[in-house]
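[stage:ingest] chain + small molecule (pyridoxal-5'-phosphate)
[stage:ingest] validated
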Amino acid sequence: MKWEENVRKVVPYTPGEQPNRSGVIKLNTNESPYPPAPGVAAAIERLVPDRLRLYPAFPEQTALAAELAGYYHVGTDQIFIGVGSDDVLSMAFMTFFNGDRPILFPDITYSFYDVWAEVYGIPYETKALDAEFRIRTQDYVTPNGGIVFPNPNAPTGVLMGLAQVEEIVAANRDVVVIVDEAYIDFGGISAIPLLDKYDNLLVVQTFSKSRSMAGMRIGYALGSPQLIKYLNDVKYSVNSYTLNYPTLELGVEAVRDKAYFEACCGRIMQTRTRAEEELAKRGFTFPKSYGNFIFASHKSMPAKEIFERLKENDIYVRWWNKERIDNYLRITIGTDEQMETLYAALDQICGG
Ligand SMILES: *Cc1c(COP(=O)(O)O)cnc(C)c1O
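[stage:predict] done
[stage:export] C-alpha cells:
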C-alpha cells in the first residue's frame, strides 16, 4: 500500500509473557510476589467516583510528589512522575538525547533502550560488558550524546558501586547520564546522593518491582530542578494528564509505609540467598545478583530447553534468544513456596 511509505516502522519491545490463567508460577517479569502495602487497599476504599469527572492533578503538584520528595530528601521540583519508569525513560530519551553524537549503553542491558533510540531516531552505540558482565568505566569516557545504564544491570543483576557510577557521571558533565535504578532496593546503593553534586544526573526508579505495584504503572525520576523542568516541558508537549486520579492516590500509600516496603525487600533478598544455594547445588552458575532475580546458566542443559520444560510445568521464567546470553535464564525471586516448586521441577528437568 502506498500509505505505508509514510509509516514510522519500528520493531517493538517484547515484554515477558503474561499468561492469562491461574495456577501459573510467574517468575518471568520481576514482579513482586507480595501484595502492595496494606494502606493501598484502604486507599482504594476511599476513592471518590465523582472525582473521575475531573481531569487528574498535575503529578508534580500532588501528595505523591511530596511523599517521594520527603522520602528521598529532595525538593518536589526534583521529582518527575510518569506511567511506569518505561514512560519516564522514554520521555528522558526524547528530552535529553537530542544531539548528533551517539548515546552509549551496554550491549547486554534492558532491551527497551535500543527500541527507544530507534523510535526517536537517536544515534546509539553499545559497549560490551566484560566477561563477568561488568560495565567498563573507560568505555564511557569518550565523546558521546548521553549515557544510560541500569544499576543493578538487567538482566544480569550485576551491581556497579557508587564510586564507579560517580566516575562515569563526573567524566560526562557535558551530557545527561541516566541511571535506571529499577532494582536498587534489593541491596544496591542508590546514586540519589550524587544529585547534590551533579546537575547532569537523572536517577529513575519504579513502583513495579520493590513496591509491588507493576499493575498501577508508576515510575519516577529524580534530578536537578533544571533537568526536571526540561522533562516536564516535553511531557506536557505529548500528553499532560498521564497519571490518573486513583494511581496518584494509591501511590502515596505505597511510599508512606516504609516498614512494609523494607520487610518485602528483605524477604525477597532472603529468598534470593537461599535460591543462590539451591541453584548452585543443581549445577547453575550466575553472577551475584542485586536484583529480585537471578541470571543463571546450567552446566550441561541448554537454557532454552530448561525454559521450555519449565513452561510445560506451568513455571514461567525469561529466556532471550540473543548472542552472549542465550544460555541464561532470568529467574524472578518468588515466594519461598514458589521457589520450592521451581527447585522440584528443576530436579525433574536437569537431573537433580
Ligand atoms: C522493569 C524495568 C523497567 C520498567 O518498569 P516499569 O514497570 O515501566 O516501571 C525499567 N528498567 C528496567 C531495567 C526494568 O527492569
